[in-house]
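Illustration: YkgJ family cysteine cluster protein.
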Amino acid sequence: MRVDCEGCAGCCIDWRPVAPAALDHERRGPRAPLDDTYNLVPLTRDEVRDFVEAGFGNALSPRLWEAPPGEGVEIDGVEIAAVDGKPAFFVGMRKPPKPVAPFGLERTWLRACAFLDPETLQCRIHDTEFYPGECAEYPGHNLVLEQETECERVERHHGGERLLDDAAPDDLHGLLLGPHALGAKLFVHPEPERLAGTIDHLKRRELTPEDRAEFVGVAVGSHPGSTEVDGDRASRARAKTLESESWAGEAVAAWDAVAGRLGSAAGDAPDPDEVEVARGAPETPGWDAVRDDG
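Result:
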């Protein structure tokens, strides 16, 4: 499996506003996500815990799904997909609007991963202990499951060659499906009544820090292979998430405050270094350095 990521980051960006055709692969079937985040990366329980311990809890956000009538649990008038009557969810990384120029386009306001450098389109936590396994193995999971990759979508809509070798790797570690995902990547909230109001916030993209911390805490308190949640561990993680003041979380608010309409020109956007590096974000090496390393 080999990919050419330079000038792309299609898997890190919500590029639907600049796609010539509809991209709806995440919203098919009876359990469409309640949020409108494109290509959310599901983190494992251990990854969520590590983010929280490092102070990055404010850069995380949940995903829940709508279920057919009578097949889930109703909260805020919405039927939520559930396991044993408890709301099911993922935890991923937030995607604020950023001024990015993928696929040879001019700088444009598009939602992008909180950890993506808008200038180089490289991940600021690549090659660190926080780099998610799902990102490290992409698009391997798609290839194993024989599903179209984001690389191929970019090729189809914007040209070029991104997926240079489509041989599925045989050493994937993060492909958690079915019962193996429960408590390890797919979490359940033990107290649906605590989520009153939160589902409405999620659908309106107005989650509060308290809303996000509630899900992050439950994820950290979860037990792999079970719907059980350690209340004390969840409470500590919730509190630590609310205390977090990471550069990534603060940059989300900064970008939200200055962003133009999604898909509009971002030529007059602030310098990304002033928004992210000035707040403590690590700089990325640029693509010349990557080429020099082979």
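Reading the tokens back as a structure: The chain has a mean pLDDT of 91.
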